[in-house]
Amino acid sequence: MTRLGSGAGALAVALALLGLEGCGVGSGPRPTPSPPSPSAKATPSPVPTAVTVLAPDGVNFRSQPSTTASVIGVVAQGVTLPIVSESSADGGWWQVRGSSATGWVTSNPEYISTASFQTYQSGGTAAWSALYPASWAFAQSGSGTLVFTSPGGEAITVTAAPSTAQLPAGAPSGTNQLSVGSVDVYGVTTALVTYSVTTGYLAAVALQATSGLAFLITDKAPSGSAAKDFNLFLDTFKFPLPTASPTP
């Protein structure tokens, strides 16, 4: 049996037995390891700085984040207020700064949003209003018809008439219905009809808002994800009613 001696000769034999001879292990400079590549970091979501009221009749402005707290006032639809803080109590609340006081409004996305919107207000006897995303545009399209369009090609069309019988059809002739649901538009429950189209999304709502005032509201878009935009538009749609009250 070979006996391992001391010194450089013994080290050479040991390296040979381990299969490491000539691999840079032992005396001499060692390679500097490369620093690890920085891991990719997810882009944080922007922190909301303001809220806009969506509810047609506004929302209560309360002294504390609770539906039982005293009401300081009412924040009207379309008003945007800066955020001070947030509370998860009693369903969720935003603390906001008004013109003369700081208070709390609900954070329920059915009534309020941190996105940016503009308000459209019609004139004349068939007055109505609605909120639409700030990036959208609108244009008149014939008598009593207005079209709101998104940068991505979505189009929400509003047509007013004295009665539903005088409104145009919700879809081109021969278009088949895909589904029929129920929707509430400013207190009026009516049908929300979606149609079978080759690509994209097509939906329509017709309602008799008041005596002498009816609406056809349609949405045509390249993608089915437009349903969210359409529902939000319907949630903000407003027309004259004898009585109304803010929520919650």
Primary descriptors:
248 residues; 5-stranded antiparallel sheet; 7-stranded antiparallel sheet; 2 domains; Protein Transport Mog1p, Chain A; single chain; mainly beta
Give the integer mean of the pLDDT values.
85
Distance between the termini: 93 Å
Tell me what the CATH architecture of the largest domain is: 3-Layer(aba) Sandwich
Computed over alpha carbons, the radius of gyration is: 32 Å
Helix-residue proportion: under 10%
Spatial arrangement of strands, main beta sheet: 10-11-12-16-15-14-13
CATH class of the largest domain: Alpha Beta
CATH third-tier fold name of the largest domain: Protein Transport Mog1p, Chain A
The best one-word shape is globular
Listing every helix as H and every strand as E from the N terminus to the C terminus, the arrangement reads HEEEEEEEEEEEEEEEEH
Number of strands: 16
| CATH homologous superfamily designation of the largest domain | Mog1/PsbP, alpha/beta/alpha sandwich
Record the SSE blueprint.
Elements: H1 7-18, E1 50-53, E2 59-62, E3 71-75, E4 80-87, E5 93-97, E6 102-106, E7 112-113, E8 117-121, E9 129-133, E10 137-140, E11 145-149, E12 155-161, E13 177-185, E14 188-195, E15 201-210, E16 213-221, H2 226-236
